[in-house]
Amino acid sequence: MRELQLPSYKEQSQKVKERFDRIKQRELILKVERLSKTFDSEKGPVLDNISFQTYRREFVSIIGPSGCGKSTMIRLIAGLEDIDSGKIIVNNKEISGPGIERGMVFQGYTLFPWLTVVENVMYGLLRKKMLRTEAKNCALNWVKIVGLEKYQDAYPSQLSGGMKQRVAIARSIATHPKMLLMDEPFSALDPQTRSKMQAYLLEIWKNVNISITFITHDIDEAIYLSDRIIVLKTDPGEIQEIIEVPVPRPRTPEQFLSPEFLATKKRLEELIHPKKDDDEVNHIIIPPDINENVL
Ligand SMILES: Nc1ncnc2c1ncn2[C@@H]1O[C@H](COP(=O)(O)OP(=O)(O)OP(=O)(O)O)[C@@H](O)[C@H]1O
Ligand SMILES: [Mg+2]
Fold first, then answer.
1. N or C: which end of the chain has fewer CB within 10 A?
2. Domain count within the chain
């Protein structure tokens, strides 16, 4: 069988190149400088000397094997964990804890179960000292944007997983943060709901001025959503490569089979699941009591 000839994942059409040029002229929203984190000194650093930056309205995914420190990284950027060494600068200010310029959506459904949909979205607005009536109007508008106006008075337990994450997104964006940090927000959803939510997130992102840092395990999801993908490796968690996704926008599910999508996917597979010379398959030892004829 002939192998499909793919272009290089580094090859970009003029349109894609121009988009990256435009992005790089925008202001920096996040600067991570020589970031390291160790939990257990015997095991060594979980994250070692990580540096990268993201621009205004850029969508950046972080991908890597389980345990490579993705959630740790997002928790550090969120200010929920202390940094050992290095710096995180958001919107030109070094962070020292959580802040309203960073919204968060995590994997578990983090809505307050005792509050209705609209009250959940109002929560951050009231904390920002917005008046109650104004907060309610603003929250209702967001509930509408995420398509849940019929459910505005429902409680989280009455919603599906996808709906809960839509409320979580509305709640985080309603306060107008500069960036949204998302840690595997769709991984608990069934595949169909998950792809709907991906398209949905792109649609929302198109209409708000926000940079997204998105953690995922899923290669297709990373390519479909991102401008750039940061690939981490384990032990210690270091950046292997930062890939500029050559797939043009607007993205559509049909692009999953385009040559540039497949070329990027192939590169990510190589980085995340590298083939080893001593692949287990080559090392199956057949016990001596198994007769060759049986095989
Ligand atoms: N609070 C903590 N205390 C001690 N060790 C921790 C803590 N948080 C994370 N770790 C360790 O740091 C490493 C990275 O964990 P992390 O959750 O960041 O990985 P991950 O890339 O998000 O993994 P997954 O893909 O499975 O979600 C793991 O070895 C984990 O055990
Ligand atoms: Mg994680």
1. N
2. 1
Residue 25: DSSP 8-state: H
Is the Cβ atom of 46 under 6 angstroms away from ligand 1? yes
pTM value > 0.85? yes
CATH number, domain of 71, equals: 3.40.50.300
pLDDT at 82 > cutoff 90: yes
Contacts of residue 120, Cβ cutoff 8 Å, sequence gap at least 6: 111, 112, 156, 167, 171
In terms of Cα–Cα distance, which of 253, 263, 227, 214 is closest to 63?
214
What is the number of the ligand 1 atom nearest to the C-alpha of 75? 18
Q: Is residue 33 included in any domain, yes or no?
A: yes
Query: 215 C-alpha vs ligand 1 centroid, how far in Å?
Result: 13
pLDDT digits (tens, 9 = 90+) for 87-122: 999 999 999 999 989 999 988 768 999 999 999 999
Nearest ligand to residue 41 Cα: 1
Whether residue 255 is contained in a domain is answered as: yes
